[in-house]
Amino acid sequence: MKALLLIDIQNGFCPGGNLPVPDGDQVVPVANKLIDSGKYDLIVASQDWHPAGHGSFASAHLGKKPFEIGRLSGKPQMMWPDHCIQNTKDAEFHPDLHVDDADFIQQKGQNPLVDSYSAFRDNDQAALTGLAAYLRNKGVTALDLCGLATDYCVKFSALDAVEMLPGVSVRFIEDASRGIDPAGVKAAMEEMRARGVAIIDSRAALT
């Protein structure tokens, strides 16, 4: 059972969004080829889905600016611009993404007291989203993942997949993903590879 996990390919992380990843929209046609290929038994998408005033937003902390380090629930936290607020256009999937073909959508980041990069659990690792249980129940044995952003939500999702889905082969599709910081992307790929995640491109995924 082979699954594809599309991570946070939303308006908020694409050009024109509130937290745009450089060239984030360029992952959409590649992701669509993967979705439409027939190579996957299961298509899953994660969706950042923050309440207004989420604690990871700089606007929720007096005197803090986006991309400064602050604190959330007593722990260091990157302060982000307000983004992907529930039921706003910013939180919607990119309009060209073939998300209607997804079998399951996993929303995340709904607890205002903790951020949630990974599609599998909150950053404090205390609360699970339920995605790992869903994939186990479906009998998934191989998981390919891609999306936005490589150095944050994609990386943490890949690392959690390795830890929480023992026995499942995990692959990161590089050209169907984009990151925020080039140095961060390089470090993320090194960390993923060191933890057993295979780094491939979409051509390899489609063969």
From TrEMBL:
Gene name in the database record: pncA
GO terms under biological process: pyridine nucleotide biosynthetic process
Pathway: Cofactor biosynthesis; nicotinate biosynthesis; nicotinate from nicotinamide: step 1/1
Protein name in UniProt: Nicotinamidase
Lineage: Bacteria, Pseudomonadati, Pseudomonadota, Alphaproteobacteria, Hyphomicrobiales
NCBIfam families xrefs: PRK11609.1
Principal EC category: hydrolase
Taxonomic superkingdom: Bacteria
Keyword annotations of the record: Hydrolase, Metal-binding, Pyridine nucleotide biosynthesis
EC numbers, comma separated: 3.5.1.19
InterPro entries (UniProt xref): Isochorismatase-like_dom, Isochorismatase-like_sf, Isochorismatase_Nicotinamidase
Family statement drawn from the similarity comment of this UniProt entry: Belongs to the isochorismatase family.
Annotated GO MF terms: metal ion binding; nicotinamidase activity
Occurrences of domain Isochorismatase-like (ranges): 3-202
